[in-house]
Amino acid sequence: MTESYEDAHTGHVTFSGLNEPCSVGSIVEVVINAQSDRTTSGDVGVKAISPTGISYTCDVVRRANSYTATFTPMEVGEWRIGIFYENDHIRGSPFSCHVYDPNLVNIYGLDVGLVGQELKFTVDTSRAGRGPIQVTVMRHGRQIPCDIYEDGKGSGRFQVVFTPDGAGQYKIHISFNNNEIKGSPFILDIADASSVSVYGDNLRMAAVDRLATFMIHALGAESKDVTVIIT
Question: Does the keyword Flavoprotein feature in the UniProt annotation (predicted)?
Fold first, then answer.
């Protein structure tokens, strides 16, 4: 928990800081402690400064032994919250407020997979702000183990790796700062390569400049799930 700050001039007005990051578009509530009857509603002021330097003056409401101010951040990044008593910053001001946007998380490589073969995809949070990701892979109500690695500390790009243990539909839940991202859960159909067979005379011999054909039998698969490479 963030420590409360005091000094000789503003010791009766304190703020403990924001312990959790905030999402874009949310209402951020700033609760300031007033430890003396000497303060009045006109003594305390609050400003929220965006990452691009835009300053917003917040309305301040006195409630018993505290003041409350709110603002709605619309930019990703580190906001600064200035808290003033008699036009002076209280100790510790300005305070940090990290803002994120789960809608800016991108997923790459989550297309197709095969039973028993390691599957890897990317979760890119580099434009979405700071914060941890949570990934849960489910099949038939059972959780499948997965590993998460960051591509360089602070890059915001994460590799998720898991190995499908059976054919069928998998649900992949992805959250950022405990908020499920847009599109989650993602549905992934896993095929069993051992059930795929290929047959046809042209697999053994074909004539130059003549159309050659062969058949692929893949039960439950669609054409987009099959890749053919001829060398």
Answer: no
Within 8 A by CB and 6+ apart from 87, the residues are 45
Strands 186-191 and 168-176: antiparallel
Residue type at 229 in one-letter notation: I
Going by C-alpha positions, the residue among 21, 32, 26, 29 that lies closest to residue 73 is: 26
* Rounded Cα distance, 75 and 46, in Å: 18
Yes or no: say if 214 and 196 are a contact pair by the CB < 8 Å rule: no
pTM exceeding the 0.70 threshold for the entire prediction: yes
Q: Going by C-beta distance under 8 Å and a sequence separation of 6 or more, which residues neighbour residue 51?
A: 75, 76, 77, 78, 79, 99
Q: Mind listing the domains of the chain with CATH numbers?
A: 13-100 (2.60.40.10), 102-192 (2.60.40.10), 194-225 (no CATH)
Tokens for 193?
């390569």
Comparing 106-120, 148-162, 200-214, the range with the smallest average pLDDT is 200-214
Q: Which residues of 132-145 are buried (b: 16+ CB within 10 A; e: fewer)?
A: ebebebebeeeebe
